[in-house]
Amino acid sequence: MKIYLKRLILASFLISVILTISPSITAYSCKSTTVCDEIGFQYEHTQCGDGEGGIFIVWSDGRNGIDLDIYAQRIDVNGDIMWEANNTAICTESGNQGTPKICSAGVGGAIIVWSDGRSGGAGAGIYAQRIKANGSTLWNANGSFVSTGGLRQLFSDNNGGAVFTLGKSIDTDYYAQRVSSNGTALWGSAGAVICNATDSQEDLQFFCDEEGNSYFTWHDYREGEIAPMIKESDIYAQKIDINGNVLWQFNGTAVCTLNGSQWYPQICTDGMGGAIINWIDLSRGQCFFQRLNSTRESQWEPNGTALLSSVNFLMVNRMISDGGGGAIIIIGGTGSGLYALRINSSAGLIYFNEFYTNENGGILRHAQICSDGEGGYFIAWEEPGLPQKKNVVAQRINGNGINIWSLNGKVVCDSLGDQVRISITNNGVGKAIISWETWLPDSVIPTDKNIYYTILKSGNETSIPFGNTYLLFAVLSILTLVFIVKRYPHQNPKT
């Protein structure tokens, strides 16, 4: 009996070693499912909550081989596909339809807006459609014409409609348009002017508050060249009410006009009718913050409050409200890791935590963040690897900024090709739905692009993630146990 017990202990020890050196398979629950794998490209996807714990997903679709169309799908709170697989068309008009955006239109519905190159009807421009929970459409077949210009972003106006932003002219001036719940453009034929100052404005970001007010920020080159072929950019902001009236200074309120260039602005609500804005100061290598109250007055230091100068924050900058007057920011850069920091309504630093070390030293891009429904957050990003090999990786942090999963997070998808264009939405307590595109390689140019999703869960469920690495380690563990038991069979002790 003692010999048999030693053999069982040895088997358990070897299995533990295998599982220890392997990626954990119990840190999150992963149920991978195909959103669309039709022939041709399915890409430019984005998602929003459906108000019932699930999501709507919309994308550009090249299955017809001639031009791009717009398709959509709904996934319920349990991760099940709700509409006909691969085949819920929103717009199949002639000409290319692309860059679709989607936002909630209330419980069980959504508004979709896209760029459209059709030649018939109202002609090329921006079109919109409202969909119901069952996938049926409410506005004109193949969409209602709502504007012209280059589509940028879309947010729910929290009143049954939506606000979207447009880039117009060679110098990229910015405008906004609001569409009602019945598909009517409400802010005139051209939309409301966000900024049409001289020279170009770039990297526009915005959100809508509960009252339907819209808040915008961007980096701005209106000062022109400081030397031949050399320009510096500043940070500006604007607020427009639900009726399209500009509330702050015409062409924007200056947030930061320090010498040097300020890039990658982000904006979120401060919960009190104002906004928190952050940006990267390339000249100083620092992350800056400012809070504007409802009447555009700066609440923190002039030209922003600098936080942290010890990390190379050059590429990744993502921010959401913490729901308490402060903000959660994800920052990182070329050669550096990814960090989560939280500031309060007075610009005080609550926590600063590294959750990914970036040991490969690649360029980090496209980090996304959403609430976990328990006071913490899910974060997902593209992990750089070999050429044509990017993985989707996720991390979960609690309300104190502490990593719930191990440092460097958990691989969500490491299959063949590039996993890109991540989108993530909370879908209940301790859960989130994450989607991405897989671009299958053929030399340099991808030959196929498909869309997948999975549900991230709290942390104690056994799971089989998308990808073969985890399954391989589990199989090795079982084979090890079988080998040892057969090699050293149990022998009854002599009586």
Strand arrangement, major sheet: 1-34-33-32
Mean pLDDT: 85
- Rg, nearest Å: 25 Å
Given as residue ranges, the uncertain stretches (5+ residues, pLDDT < 50) are 15-30, 460-475
Give the terminus-to-terminus CA distance: 12 Å
Task: State the oligomer.
Answer: single chain
How many helix segments? 2
Q: Major sheet, described briefly?
A: 4 strands, antiparallel
The coarse overall form would be globular
Question: Which band does the percent of strand residues land in?
Answer: 35-45%
Structural class: mainly beta
Q: Percent helix among the residues?
A: under 10%
What's the gist of this structure?
The protein contains 2 helices and 34 strands.
Describe this structure in words.
With 495 residues, the protein is mainly β. It is 8% helix and 43% strand. The chain has helices at residues 2-21, 469-487; strands at residues 33-36, 42-49, 55-61, 69-75, 89-91, 97-104, 110-116, 125-131, 144-147, 150-156, 162-168, 173-179, 192-195, 201-208, 214-220, 225-227, 230-231, 234-240, 253-256, 262-269, 275-281, 286-292, 305-307, 316-321, 327-332, 338-343, 349-356, 365-371, 377-383, 391-397, 410-413, 418-426, 432-440, 448-456. Helix 1 (2-21) packs antiparallel against helix 2. It is globular.
Break the fold down into its secondary structure elements and pairings.
Elements: H1 2-21, E1 33-36, E2 42-49, E3 55-61, E4 69-75, E5 89-91, E6 97-104, E7 110-116, E8 125-131, E9 144-147, E10 150-156, E11 162-168, E12 173-179, E13 192-195, E14 201-208, E15 214-220, E16 225-227, E17 230-231, E18 234-240, E19 253-256, E20 262-269, E21 275-281, E22 286-292, E23 305-307, E24 316-321, E25 327-332, E26 338-343, E27 349-356, E28 365-371, E29 377-383, E30 391-397, E31 410-413, E32 418-426, E33 432-440, E34 448-456, H2 469-487
Antiparallel strand pairs: 1-34, 2-3, 3-4, 4-5, 6-7, 7-8, 8-9, 10-11, 11-12, 12-13, 14-15, 15-18, 16-17, 18-19, 20-21, 21-22, 22-23, 24-25, 25-26, 26-27, 28-29, 29-30, 30-31, 32-33, 33-34
Helix pairs in contact: 1-2
